[in-house]
Recover the amino acids of this structure.
């Protein structure tokens, strides 16, 4: 019997997160998911853990199929490539969880990704945007498909939000610092009515 292997990631940057609500664009059931960006050094241990489970499943399947050729599927991580086609030195992990699963008895079970803040307190109703810094936790799920081969998926169970980026986040959350120059107040001041004295002077001309 296979033993479930759990994982907890280092802190990384969330890309295209669907953590509060599932993504239903291509599947009506929907997926909770996030791509987690880590530096190559930070990703090293997690990649090794995934690779170990793939190798273990590969040996198991190779024995079962009795001499048939078995291939390996792509791992649930890849090297990040920039707009010029160059490697950035970062690794992207693909974490996912169906919003509902069907048990062996045919029962539909709704799934959620549990969210916690930096102090470990539960979060609800918070829309986590890309650029947020998070840790993620879940289970490695080995699989075999004659078409895809032997692989491992990273089932997502929970995330800890260390630094939150939302729709209403300020400039600092995007990496901007305060600089000398234009301010939005300048436009506001230009729209103010003239001083009362000037207004009265204009009215006396009529």
């Amino acid at each position: 019997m296979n033993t479930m292997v759990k994982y907890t990631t280092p802190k990384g940057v969330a890309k295209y997160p669907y953590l509060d609500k599932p993504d239903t664009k291509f599947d009506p059931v929907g997926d909770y998911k996030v791509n987690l960006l880590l530096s190559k050094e930070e990703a090293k241990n997690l990649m090794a853990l995934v690779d170990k489970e793939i190798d273990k499943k590969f040996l198991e399947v190779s024995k079962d199929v009795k001499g048939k050729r078995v291939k390996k599927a792509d791992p649930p991580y890849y090297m990040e490539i920039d707009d010029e086609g160059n490697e950035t030195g970062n690794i992207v992990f693909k974490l996912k969880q169906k919003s509902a699963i069907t048990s062996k008895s045919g029962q539909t079970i709704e799934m959620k990704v549990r969210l916690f803040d930096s102090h470990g307190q539960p979060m609800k109703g918070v829309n986590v945007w890309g650029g947020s810094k998070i840790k993620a936790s879940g289970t490695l799920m080995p699989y075999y498909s004659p078409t895809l081969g032997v692989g491992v998926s990273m089932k997502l169970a929970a995330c800890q939000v260390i630094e939150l980026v939302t729709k209403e986040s300020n400039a600092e959350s995007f990496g901007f610092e305060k600089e000398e120059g234009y301010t939005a107040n300048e436009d506001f001041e230009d729209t103010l009515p003239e001083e009362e004295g000037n207004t009265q002077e204009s009215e006396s001309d009529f």
